[in-house]
């Protein structure tokens, strides 16, 4: 029975890791005021676009981000560029962003599933009359350590050649070549250059790592205190 208790605890840990990961992504790209303006300024993206204001570009970005989280029905966004009113995104970009939205919403859905699974596992532990205060912290330490260790290895590999693994990522998660954009005709690739993705990945990794370390630290503290009392 102790093995079952430990497995349930590890499963809870894995679910929490995914919940924290998706939450970290949301925190960086949605809950970080001024982030896009700062990145656009850093990489001087307006220089690679037909003449437009930063305010208009940020309005387009807001509409794009609303679309990705399902708060906007389509990505037909009209703005002023080069002194004329036109749609910012072309058909190819819109088709690619549909794939991106499906991926993002799928990750959000999986986070909800993980939350339900974690609560169900916790309820099952109580139902099995497990000593949750003794069983859960060590299991969380183990599960968190295993999951984070795997991610750390992946992060180390990716950091050796971000461009290469950025392409590999797209080949894995997209079944078409719509993500291959032309900077001469496609605005999307100009407003989010590779440096933007690198900065964003670094911020997500930093926040996620901090959250995981807090979870691991609390679990370790409770685990050691439980052993001391025992």
From TrEMBL:
<protein>
    <submittedName>
        <fullName>Integral membrane protein TIGR01906</fullName>
    </submittedName>
</protein>
<feature type="transmembrane region" description="Helical">
    <location>
        <begin position="205"/>
        <end position="224"/>
    </location>
</feature>
<feature type="transmembrane region" description="Helical">
    <location>
        <begin position="7"/>
        <end position="31"/>
    </location>
</feature>
<keyword id="KW-1133">Transmembrane helix</keyword>
<keyword id="KW-0472">Membrane</keyword>
<dbReference type="Pfam" id="PF07314">
    <property type="entry name" value="Lit"/>
</dbReference>
<dbReference type="InterPro" id="IPR010178">
    <property type="entry name" value="Lit"/>
</dbReference>
<feature type="transmembrane region" description="Helical">
    <location>
        <begin position="103"/>
        <end position="128"/>
    </location>
</feature>
<feature type="transmembrane region" description="Helical">
    <location>
        <begin position="135"/>
        <end position="158"/>
    </location>
</feature>
<keyword id="KW-0812">Transmembrane</keyword>
